[in-house]
Amino acid sequence: PDVIIEAQFDDNDAEHGQDHLQDMLTDDIKKLSLDTGEKGKGAGLTGVHRTKQDEGPKVNDPGLLPDEFLQRTAKVVYILEKKHSRAATGFIKLLADRNSELFKRCAMFSPVDHRVPRVYVPLADCPPDFVTKPEAYSQMLFICRIVDWKEDSNFASGQLCKSLGQAGEIEPESEGILTEYGVDFSDFSPEVLECLPQNLPWVISPGELAKRRDLR
Prior knowledge:
Layout: H1 11-39, E1 87-93, E2 106-111, E3 119-122, E4 140-148, E5 156-166, H2 170-180, H3 190-194, H4 206-210
Parallel strand pairs: 3-5
Antiparallel strand pairs: 1-2, 1-4, 2-3, 4-5
């Protein structure tokens, strides 16, 4: 491939004349040929000769750079609406550092959903024999709700709401999913049940069928 050599003229070049410039370009071509032959032998690589302009001083003032080279930054100042229920399903375990002061007060809650952070929960919320027999609760699902997350902490703070049961069973897993997404699955109130037909078995009357479109 063709090799383009760029040179920068200065006062020294003008004083030494065209012969000096020709010699300088010849030397540059020889060096470039050697570099290209050693580094890209048989690969068809194009050598690039750096000029003095490429090695100029770096711009340290961001205000001097064009807008397309700047990365815009922002800061969250207020939460308008909490889209997440702050509740998660997961497991509890003892902290790794048994000699720390935090080990005596908190346990670690690990959510099943890895998008939710790990949470410190008070030992008072855990089962009474959790500290002495943590392995008995290694496969027990719990519901935890995040209540705070301090700026200087790697983990959030929360409270254990309830124990769901063994992981892998349908009822505990289903209840955990419904709780995470804030779905109300409590029993219907008496007022709601009174709106349903009381005379059972209930069937659709012929008059009701006549004024409706049958999509069955």
